[in-house]
Amino acid sequence: MKSIHLAQSIIDPFPADAQQLLVGVSGGVDSVVLLHTLKDVSERLNVSLHVAHLDHQIRSESSNDAAFVRDLCGQWDIPCYAESYDVAELAERGKLSIEMAGRQARREFFQRIAEMIEADAIVLAHHLDDQLETFLIRLLRGSGQSGLAAMRIHTGIWWRPLLGCSRGQILEYAQKYELRWVEDQSNNNPVFLRNQLRHQLIPQLLEINSNIAQKVAGLTQQIQVEEDYWQELITQQFNDLVISCNDGLRLRRGDLLVMHPALRMRMLREALRRLRGDLQRIEAVHLHSIEMLLTGQRSQAQLDLPGCWVARRYETLWLRDVAPKLPERFDLSLPLPGELELPDGRILRSSIQDEQEGESTNVAEYSLALLPHSLRVRSWQAGDRFEPLGMTGRKRLKNYFSDCQIELEARLKTPLLVSGETILWVIGMRRSNYAVAGKDKGMILRVELI
Amino acid sequence: MKSIHLAQSIIDPFPADAQQLLVGVSGGVDSVVLLHTLKDVSERLNVSLHVAHLDHQIRSESSNDAAFVRDLCGQWDIPCYAESYDVAELAERGKLSIEMAGRQARREFFQRIAEMIEADAIVLAHHLDDQLETFLIRLLRGSGQSGLAAMRIHTGIWWRPLLGCSRGQILEYAQKYELRWVEDQSNNNPVFLRNQLRHQLIPQLLEINSNIAQKVAGLTQQIQVEEDYWQELITQQFNDLVISCNDGLRLRRGDLLVMHPALRMRMLREALRRLRGDLQRIEAVHLHSIEMLLTGQRSQAQLDLPGCWVARRYETLWLRDVAPKLPERFDLSLPLPGELELPDGRILRSSIQDEQEGESTNVAEYSLALLPHSLRVRSWQAGDRFEPLGMTGRKRLKNYFSDCQIELEARLKTPLLVSGETILWVIGMRRSNYAVAGKDKGMILRVELI
Asked: Quick check: B229 and A196 CB within 8 A?
C-alpha cells in the first residue's frame, strides 16, 4: 500500500507536459528509489529520463558512488551524466560550509546538464524527513516566516515528488523491490548541522510527537501558500511605492503608513531585499527600527543597518547601501560684475545697473550702496540666521529649510549669497529683507542664477 | 544597563490609561521581579497595584509559597488576594494535564479578582524564554501558523510586559536588588512537557544558536502581525460568504473559489472554528480534502472530518457537526377523492372532475381511465425512472434531480405520485407524459399540492 502511495506521489505532482526529466542521483537510497519509481512512471507516460551525479571528492569512496550510479543507469538503460568537482576547494574559496558548497556545486551542475539536454524538470529526492530538517535548520538559523516555507514540491525547474514521503516509506519501497544503494558516510559526520539534527535533536522531537514530520510538512504547506499570497501583493503594489531608484531606493512614506502593518513589514523586507540582494543579518529589531523611523516625530532621521542605510526625509523613506557622501562645504568670492560657477555647475552672474528689472526665484536685486562688504557665496553653517523678505525678525536658516522640507543633503548644497555675516539670498529660494533695491536708492546690484 | 532595560520594557507597552493593575505572583523569581519593577513604575505613574496568588495544592510546600507572597506584599504594602484550589482534582475532572488545569484555574481566579477590583490589566511574568518554550510546544503539538504566534504582550486584559526580557536579565535584576523568591519545585518535574523542553531540548538548541530565544521572539512578532492581518480580512469578508447558518453553515462555493488559496484556507479554518468552537485535531490534510471537495468534479460529495461533516451541494459548501439525518422513506396511499398529509406537513388533495381546470407547478391532471392502479405517494427509490412531460424516452429520476440541482437530502423528501410502477408526478416539480388528461379522454383526476 505504501509503495503505491510512493508511485502515486510521483504521478500526482507531475509537471505539465514534461518530456525530459533530469534526475539528481547520489546513489543513496532516496535517489535510487526516486529513480526506480520514475522509471516505472516515465515508461507509462512516455517521458525520457536522464541522470546526473556529482562526485564531491570529499570522501575517499565518493568515486565508488559515481561508479555505482553509472552501473545502475547502465542496467536500467538511462543516460547518465557524471562529473566530479572539488567541493572542499569551493568551500574554502567561497567561505562556505562544505554542505553549502556541495549544494551550490550540485545546483550548478544539474542546471548545466538540464540546459544541455533541454530537460523540463530537475528531479530531486528530498522527502518528508528532509523537509523537517530543513524547517528546523531555518528555524535555528533565525530565519523569518519566509524561510520556514522550507522546500516546495515545485519551484521553477526543480521538482521534489517525494517531499510528502517519509524515509520509512522510501526504505520500505527499496526493500520491496530489492533495490541496492550506497550509504553516504557523510550522513554520520556530526560536524554537519543537518546530521546533528538527524541524530540528536529530531529523535527527541519524535519522542514528544512521533508525527512531527507530517505536522511540520502541513505547516510548511500553509506557509508556502501564504508566502505566495504576500508575494502577489508585493508584485502588485511595490512599484507604486517607489518614487525613484536611481540613488538607492526612495519610497512614499504616506503609502507605507496607510498599509496594514503586516503588509508594510513585507514591503520593507522587499525593499531591503531589492537593495541588498538578500535579507541576511536583517532581524526583527531592524524592521522595528525602520517602523519607528517611519512613524516617529522626527521628519528627518537615519539608521545604519547591516548592509544598508535607511533614512526618513520628510515624506520619503530613503534606502541606500551606505549613507550618502555629504557635499563639501564651499565659500567662494562673487566677482562684481562677473560670473561664478557654483559647485553644482550652475552659474551665478552679477551685474551693476541703473534700473531695477524685477526679481524672481532666480533673480535678486540689491541696493549697492547698502552692501558694505564684498559678496561671497557659501554653503550653510550651523547657527546661520536670516530675515526672509516680507517677514520681521531673523529666523534660523535650519528652521527655514525645515519649513521648506529641504532634505539634509540638499541643505549643504544650497548656495547662500552673503555680505559679511549677512545672508542676502538663499539662492534660488528666498531673498532677505536686507538691502532691498528701490527708487532713489542708487545703483542696483543684480544677481541672476542661470 | 540591563535592569534599566527591564524597567523600560515595563513602561514601554504600558496599557493606555491603566489605573489599577492586578499582578499574578507565584513567588518565583519572574513574578517577584515583575512586581518589583511595577512597584517602582506604578509609584511614578500613580497606578495602584494588587497581587493575586493561587495555591495549586499540588505540592506540599505550595502553602509556603502563598505565605511568602503574602509576606512580600505586606512588606511592599500591596494588597494581596490569595486563594487555594485543588488543581489535581480539576485535572482529573476535566481530563486535563496538570499544567493545563493549573493554567485554567489561574486564569479564572485572576479574572474574577480583576473584575472585583475593576483592574484595567492582569499582568503576568512571562518572559522571552517562556515564549520560546510556548513556541516550541505549539510546534511540537502540530499547531498551524496561528498557534506559532505564541503569546502576545497585550491580549485583551492580559499584559505581559517582560515578554522581551530573558531569564538571565530577570535573574540579574533580582540579584542587583537583592530580591528573595521561592523556587518552584515543579519546574524540575520531567513529566511536564515544558520542563522536558527546558532541561533537554532547549539546551541543545542553544548550543546550535545561543540567540535562538531572540530569533524566535522576532518570528512570533511577525506571525502575530500577520495573524492580525488575516483576522481583519476574515472579519471583513467572512459574512459575505455565508448563505445561511441555521442548519450548520452554508457557504458560497463560487466566492471561495475566486479567493487566493491562502485566504480560502483561512476562511475554511474560520468556518470550522465557528462550527466546532476550535480547530483541535484539524490538520493540513483535512483542509486539503475540503479544497478537493470544492474544486473536484463531483457536484455533490461529503467528508467526515474530526468533529464535523463537510459537504459540497452544487454551489454550496455545507458544514455541520454531524451528517444530517436522512429523511425516512415513505409510501402512502392517496384517497380518491380525498386528502393526504405528506411527511413534510403539506397536503395533497385529489378530486374527480368532468372538466380540466389547467395544470401548474402545484397541480396535475390525469385521465382517470388511463390509471389502472390505485394511487400512492412515495419517496424516491434507487432505479426510479420517469418520462418528463414534453420529453420522449424515460430518464433516470436521479439524473432529473441532478439536472434540477436538487440536493441529496432534498431528493428523499420529494414526494412522487405513482400508479403501480409508473411515476405520474415529481410532486411540485414536473409531471410525466403518462395519462395526460384531454378532451374526450373521460373523467379527470385532479391532484393539488396545498
From this structure: no
